[in-house]
Amino acid sequence: MTKPTRQSSCKQDNGVDLGSIGKGLAIDLAASVLEPVNNFIINAGGDIRAHGSKPDGPWTVGLAQHELPNKGVGGGYFGHINIINQSLAASGGWGRRVRFFHHLLNPKTGMPINEVSQTFTLANDAQTADVWATILFASGKQGPDLLDTTEEIEGMIVFADGSTYCSRGFSFIS
C-alpha cells in the first residue's frame, strides 16, 4: 500500500478478502433499512444485530461451542446471552476448515492461527463486533489485554486448550 494515496494493487491471480468486515457491514446496512421498525433481530449466519426487544424481554442468543480440533471437545453451547440494541459476532476456524487448516491465517507465516478456537464480541453495531471478533482471534494470547483495554466491545475468547476468558461486561447464562 502506498502511503500518500492509500492505494494498493494485486497481481492478476491475487485478491483481497473482506470477509472479516463484510458480514457486519451488510448487517448494519440491513438494519438501517429496518430502523423505522421498533423491534427486530437480524441473524446472518451467527453474526447478529438486535434492535429493541421481544415483547417479553431481551433477545436470547445461544453461544455455540464448536468442536476443538483434535480435542474431541465441543458441540452444544457455552450458554446464552440476552441482548437489546447490541450486536454479537463470532469468529473461529470451524466454518471453513479443510483437514486441520482453516481460513484465519497468520499474515507472517501463512499458516492457520491455532492459539484461539473461537471468539464472541458484543458491540453497538455489527461491523464493530465483526471486526473485533476477528482481531481477537488473530491476537492469540494477547487477546485478553486487548479486550480489557477496548471500551467499545465486550467479549469472550475460547483458547485452543478449551480455557476461556471473558471481559467484565460479557455475562452469559450457562
From TrEMBL:
Any one GO molecular-function label of the UniProt entry: metal ion binding
Catalytic activity as recorded in UniProt: L-threonyl-[protein] + FAD = FMN-L-threonyl-[protein] + AMP + H(+)
Organism whose genome encodes this protein: candidate division WS6 bacterium OLB21
UniProt KW keywords: FAD, Flavoprotein, Lipoprotein, Magnesium, Metal-binding, Transferase
The organism's place on the tree of life at top rank: Bacteria
Entry EC no(s): 2.7.1.180
Designated name of the protein: FAD:protein FMN transferase
InterPro entries: ApbE, ApbE-like_sf
